[in-house]
Amino acid sequence: MRPKQKPSAPLPAIDLAHSGQAQVLDQVITLNRLGKVAGRAHAASVERISAVVQKPRIFYAVGGDATVTTLGSPAFTLDGQLLGIFVMRTVKSSDGGAGFSA
Q1: d(CA 7, CA 14)
Q2: Distance CA 50, CA 37 (A)
Q3: Helices vs strands, H then E, count in the chain
Q4: Alpha carbons 57 and 26: distance in angstroms, whole number
């Protein structure tokens, strides 16, 4: 994402060292943009953490319910702390195919 006009000062970075934490079955809030047919309106969704993976680094898997959350959407704990952003993690399998998890 790039601003339409160059900022007059450098934009501050978000320090994820002090991000929120979630546990299995916690609810998190995600912020999204709807598609062109909805005029790119802002939207929010409630997701539920289904797993917490510790290695190789911590990441959260969410349930498979259909919501408007998309890749790149920020996720926040219920008390407003940034949890992270939605990404897709892929790994090569030993049979040459690729597996994935969110």
Answers
A1: 17
A2: 31
A3: 0, 7
A4: 19
Q: For every one of its 102 residues, what pLDDT tens digit does the chain have, with 9 covering 90 and above?
A: 678 899 999 988 877 788 899 999 999 999 999 989 999 999 999 999 999 999 888 889 988 887 888 888 999 999 999 999 988 878 777 665 544 444
pTM above 0.90, yes or no: no
d(CA 86, CA 95) in angstroms, rounded, equals 27
Contact 86, 92 (CB under 8 A): no
What are the Cα distances from residue 28, in Å, to 20, 51, 90, 98?
10, 13, 23, 28
Contact present, 83 and 22 (Cβ < 8 Å): yes
Ordered strands of the 82-85 beta sheet: 59-62, 42-53, 27-33, 74-76, 82-85
Structure tokens given for 11? 């934009």
